Amino acid sequence: MAKIIAVHSFRGGTGKSNITANLASLVALAGHRVGIIDTDIQSPGIHVIFGFNQDNLKYALNDYLWGNCKIEDAAYDVTRAAIPEPNGDRPRLFLIPSSVKTGEIARVLCDGYDVGLLNDGIQSVSRALSLDYLFIDTHPGVNEETLLSIAICDRFMLIMRPDNQDFQGTAVTVELAHRLEVQEILLIVNKVPQGMEAGMLQGQIESTYKAEVVGMLPLNAEMASLASSALFSVRYGDHPITQTLKGIARRIMT
Amino acid sequence: MSTDGTNYLDALVTKLKSAAAPFRDTLNELHAKYKDVREGAVADYIPELAKADPNAFGISVMSVDGQVVEVGDHQQLFSLQSISKPFVFGLALEDHGREHVLSKVSVEPTGEAFNSIVLDETTNRPFNPLVNAGAIATADLVEGKNFSERISRMLAMFSRYFGRTLYVDNSIFMSERATGHRNRAIGHLMLNFGMIKDRVEETLELYFQQCSLLVNCHDLAVLGATLANGGVNPITGQRAIKAEYVKDVLSIMASCGMYDYAGEWAFRVGLPAKSGVGGGIVAVVPGKFGIGIYSPPLDAKGNSVRGVLACRELSERFGLHVFEAGHDGPSLEDEFRPRRG
After folding, report:
1. Closest-approach residue (CA) in chain B for A3
2. Does residue B259 have an active-site annotation?
3. Which chain A residue has the Cα nearest residue B10?
């Protein structure tokens, strides 16, 4: 059975999708079959990082939720974004994108959907693609997709910036995660400004949320100028950020 | 609802735990396995029942803490029919106490059909409250200073169980009433023996109304979960029946709930249950779960074919039989909790 990793942040702009895409690729590169599902139906985006063009997209997660297709029909092999010439069953990287068509986003808001179906889909795509890991990229804030992914995940990763708004919001998410009986919360602090005392910050955050900080990532110019056009860990293989991400990936796989 | 939102938070968490339950997979699989069963026939003694879609099939399972997992046509409305009987029996018990009610209706299973015109020869009592005669006798016991008060007390009782306002399907009610000659005969026979009060038409109206209440399969799961939960609706927290009478309702369902299949049902499934000719079945796992199933085609004994098959499999898979002592497979409680690796 696939290990489910839910990645979330209470507020937008924390770098959640970029971190998710990089961690999923690094876990795949370690020799696994990995899926990423973009449950951020209201503001999808992670497909961009994989250079995935939605113009010729036949099915998206939306189609599955509305009963137009099986969820595996909405899964696309994006291994090449991380490895130039993949061969064999492993590593493999699959993406289940959400639609960026305005009408389809509007339909979600108008009609809603049965959130239980999302769980059915996550379970069946894990089986159909024989996944070892499935990453769920969630919508920021509290909504049903997010809470469902918290409720079904094996590991819950919470990304925050060293910002007072993030501190408050993260407390809300942590409380909900406890209510949903999550066993393990892993915190990532991103966009830490130069000069901020990282060790003290980490201790403060760990004692506030009683959860482990698995990585502190600096506010970084190369990451920003990449503008989600590619996987950072592939483009900058030896960068200290990539090394930190590799450490987090190893932590996920333990 | 509390002003600090605690109840909303509880409701949200319960909803998400339901959506996350591994039992969804199991229930989808069970539904797929039996949806193409083509045995049985839709009840057609009144035209309104004959209109039901024979392919309709829904299952809802609710835990006593309010988690619910459902599949298929769980929102399709249908008439409650005989499923109403044990609950009106419960109301009669609350109104009169156990001894008085038992002086009017016995609690013996009968191998006779549900609509048989048979009374106990020495006491003139109907055999049990779940055959039509016994149900009419218990409907007669519903208190109220006039007819409309009796009707509203009965509807209020059902609303407490279901946690919502209920409506009578008027066309079903009208045809039950227009064609209810046999039930009318049963009523008059009991009046003749002094077993019911001289208000037969009124009591029959009440009886036809309880049979014509519109519910869905989700409602049946709530009904079952309320009994499983000692008489308290798990969603609203409202008590539907005094705790002391819960066991009376459950034991009558266990011994007589499935018409003249009750014996084999008790043996194979081993859960208190009640079926109706509308295609519904409610089953109760005491202390744990309520199960609601809807599928209109009935077998020769008047029970939903797919409903019986699904209940049998659920009981066998999860060791739900109330006398189960050696089950070593997964429990249904486990399937309601997220599975984490």
Report:
1. B341
2. yes
3. A179
Q: Which of B16, B31, B59 has the most A C-beta neighbours within 10 Å, making it the best mutation to test the interface with A?
A: B16
Taking contacts as CB-CB distances below 8 angstroms, the residues of chain B near A147 are 12-13, 16
Residue found by looking up tokens 């809802």 in the block? B60
Clarify whether B245 is annotated catalytic: no
pLDDT tier, A222 (very low <50, low <70, confident <90, very high otherwise): confident
What residues does each domain of chain B span? Answer: 20-81+214-335, 83-211
Q: Which long-range contacts (CB under 8 A, 24 or more apart) does B164-171 make?
A: B164/B219, B166/B213, B166/B214, B166/B215, B167/B213, B167/B214, B168/B209, B168/B212, B168/B213, B168/B214, B169/B48, B169/B77, B169/B79, B169/B212, B169/B213, B169/B214, B170/B212, B171/B48
Ranges of residues in chain B with a pLDDT under 50 are none
What fold does the segment set B20-81+214-335 form as a domain?
Beta-lactamase (3.40.710)
Six token digits for residue B175: 């045809």
* Contact between B17 and A151 using a beta-carbon 8 Å cutoff: yes
This model's pTM is above 0.90: yes
Beta strand residue intervals within A24-127, DSSP E: 33-38, 76-77, 92-96
Q: For B163-319, where are the alpha helices, taking DSSP H only?
A: 170-179, 181-192, 200-211, 217-228, 243-256, 262-268, 305-318
Q: How far is B253 from chain A (nearest CA, A)?
A: 32
Q: Is B8 tagged catalytic?
A: no
Would you call B29 an interface residue with chain A, using a CB distance cutoff of 8 Å? no
Q: Using the beta-carbon criterion (under 8 Å), do B16 and A148 form an inter-chain contact? A: yes
Say if B20-81+214-335 and B83-211 have the same CATH topology: yes
Please say whether the beta carbons of A88 and A20 come within 8 A: no
**Fold classification of B83-211 (topology level):** Beta-lactamase (3.40.710)
Q: Provide the angle, in degrees to the nearest 10, between the axes of the packed helices B200-211 and B132-140.
A: 110
Across the interface, whether the CB atoms of A120 and B25 are under 8 A apart is answered yes
Is ipTM beyond 0.85?
yes
Q: Of B68, B131, B215, B277, which is the active-site residue?
A: B277
Sketch out chain A's domains with CATH numbers: 3-253 (3.40.50.300)
